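debug: dumping io for the single-chain case to check the tokenizer round-trip. Nothing else runs in this session.
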Amino acid sequence: QVQLVESGGGLVQAGGSLRLSCAASGRTFSNYAMGWFRQAPGKERGVVASINWSGRSTYYTDSVKGRVTISRDNAKNTVYLQMNSLKPEETAVYYCAAAADWTLYSARYSYNYEYWGQGTQVTVSS
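debug: decoded output
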């Protein structure tokens, strides 16, 4: 089992920045690829970004490229999501997730991830 706890969400004005963190415990963190997903009310959960076990390979959904950075610190068992120039339409619950198997193709699909956190709310005001 891998337990994941997100933090860092909150209320921010449009154009602002937030840094989300996800602390992992349980099995060896560095054995897992990590992803950040988001779900707005009435919408499906979709990938924001994902990172492989070493941190050397990343995936970003098109709408966040250039504004969002995913990173990880395996010594701290933590994955981060730095989000800049936030938009009101990015208001959602943000979830981190862990996957034992990962490719740049599978990174975008939620079914590839075995473990999920409870989520943290991000609200972007206009």
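debug: round-trip ok. The mean pLDDT is 96.
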